[in-house]
Design brief:
This protein has 195 residues and is of the alpha/beta class. It has one domain (4-188): Rossmann fold (3-Layer(aba) Sandwich). The protein is 59% helix and 12% strand. The protein starts with a strand and ends with a helix. Bound molecules: adenosine monophosphate. Adenosine monophosphate binds next to helix 2 and helix 3.
């Protein structure tokens, strides 16, 4: 079982690259943003709570997120592996993820950090906002999401560097070029694991 995390600022291409990875390697995609947006669409109790955070560009509280991820992750014992897209976003979430995976005798194999310049992030989010139904793809909210990213999520880079799992990939190139780089890191890791 091969478990991967994709992290990076809003607009870095996390969702697109996560889709590509899950398709190519047969992993199960756990996108916490998608899970939350589904709750909102279904008008559930949790959906009503999380909407107030998402609409401001803030993080949903850790306890809600951990419960959501626990439910998704434990149901997937027979999968080839899990791909976490948008989780963890805080050190507490990262520690929690390590803990639950340990209970199931599993671990994170690789963490991809997609690096994109700030101007380009805004360009992409504003471009996406033309078609997307996402309430948080507006300039002011995107600015807050980026601020929140640097404060809460950026420290994860050091967390996974210390675990020797982090691979920083430039997300400034074409989608296929970025995916080519990601694939070669995964193939390398798979080859080493099989030897
Ligand atoms: P995303 O689709 O990954 O950009 O997530 C959209 C929004 O959902 C974020 O801006 C947060 O408000 C919320 N969210 C998604 N994942 C998490 C998480 N792991 N922790 C806290 N909030 C999250």
């Amino acid at each position: 079982m091969f478990n991967i995390i994709v992290l990076g600022p809003p607009g870095c291409g996390k969702g697109t690259q996560s889709n590509n990875i899950t398709k190519k390697y047969g992993l199960t995609h756990i996108s916490t943003g998608e899970i939350l947006r589904e709750e909102i669409e279904l008008h559930t109790h949790i959906g009503r709570i999380v909407k107030t955070y998402i609409d401001k560009g803030s993080l949903v509280p850790d306890d809600i997120m951990m419960q959501k991820v626990f439910v998704s992750a434990v149901n997937l014992e027979n999968s080839n592996g899990l791909l976490f897209d948008g989780f963890p976003r805080t050190i507490l979430q990262a520690e929690y993820l390590d803990d639950i995976l340990r209970i199931y005798d599993k671990k994170i194999s690789l963490v991809f950090h997609l690096n994109v310049e700030e101007n380009e992030l805004y360009n992409r989010i504003l471009h996406r906002s033309i078609d997307s139904k996402r309430s948080d793809d507006q300039l002011e909210i995107a600015k807050n999401r980026l601020k929140v990213y640097y404060k809460n999520t950026f420290p994860l880079i050091d967390y996974y560097l210390k675990q020797k799992k982090l691979k920083t990939i430039s997300g400034m190139a074409e989608i296929s070029e970025v995916f080519g780089k990601i694939s070669s890191v995964i193939d390398d890791k798979i080859n080493k694991t099989e030897k």
